[in-house]
């Protein structure tokens, strides 16, 4: 029984290599300044970080692309950046990671988002954001929608991910166009939502908020507590918005999956948490790949939950380690 079980997990991981994944969303550069902290500033009661290293990484929806790539699948990233110096750095980072630039459009009305994290003694001390949060204009939405349709067709997308950071790349109009197109082409759609477009994702296959996003998106006075309350909220939301599966991440409590046929709480595994940055990107990436293979909601939630926990052990936003994830899945006999 165990050997058959392990074989099934290994086959799943091998099958990931055949998948094409279209990722739509707000992209950004995650900039890091690493250093030592030895004294407090005489100018203000703040620590002085003596910088020893600087690094630029792909962030936002681009980090989802990195996670998809790390799992062996083929990511195709679709977004809009500024027509500025930072966009050149962003394209260089894409090329360095061997990621396609076909789906990236430039806008004269926007800047390329940069989030700079200052890290001292292995702890994030400060973050500085450079960004524009206004929605794409009508012509930009149309151009991006057309590019998405072209690439979904030419790249034979097995699944589409909306990675929403509320920075304006994803609009209600874009969602409607893409979801309608995906239904015509029978392509499953998964969503990592934020507050602005929370109610606009009707008809998607899988919707993955965290508890805070669920509370804010539904304008609840407080987040649902306990399985019964979660189930009640999930049932009402999925019915109203015609969503197949709801996947709610619950931080240290694990992950809750809800569909008309399955409701299950998958507990979190004990971890040495260093940084939760990017964990949601990893969860949605693994969940999307599982969905593309038509795996059960419980298997999907279980693997996504395990993957999200693994990246929390690393400092900064980093993609999941496929070999490590497979090893843990085998050890824990998850499937």
Précis, in short:
With 335 residues, the protein is α/β, with parallel strands linked by helices. The chain is 39% helix and 26% strand.
Strand content: 25-35%
**Number of alpha- plus pi-helical segments:** 10
Cα shape:
globular
Oligomeric form: single chain
Give the radius of gyration: 20 Å
Overall residue-averaged pLDDT value: 90
Protein described:
The protein is of the alpha/beta class. The chain has a single domain (2-26, 59-111, 132-332), classed as Ribokinase (UDP-N-acetylmuramoyl-L-alanine:D-glutamate ligase, 3-Layer(aba) Sandwich). It is 39% helix and 26% strand. It has ten helices and 13 strands. The strands form two sheets. The protein has a nine-stranded mixed sheet, sandwiched between helices. A four-stranded mixed sheet has the order 3-2-6-7. A hairpin with a 5-residue loop joins strand 11 (245-249) and strand 12 (255-259). Helix 2 (61-70) crosses helix 8 (279-292), helix 4 packs parallel to helix 5 and helix 8 packs antiparallel against helix 9 (297-311). The N and C termini lie close together (11 Å). The relative contact order is 0.14. The mean pLDDT is 90.
